[in-house]
Amino acid sequence: MRTPGYRSTVSPQLNRSFELQPARIDYELATFHNDQANRQNDIRLSAGVLYRFGARNK
What we know:
about 55% strand, three-stranded antiparallel sheet, mainly beta
């Protein structure tokens, strides 16, 4: 059984098309109903550059 996790992202926009994502942290706690380990902590760290296709209307 999975429970909701938490996400934290830092993404400054460089211009209309590019966005820098130097840090993204995802945390999720999974619980299991069995006779052994009942919890599992999952952490994912990522980084990258985002590119948006198309024009944005403002």
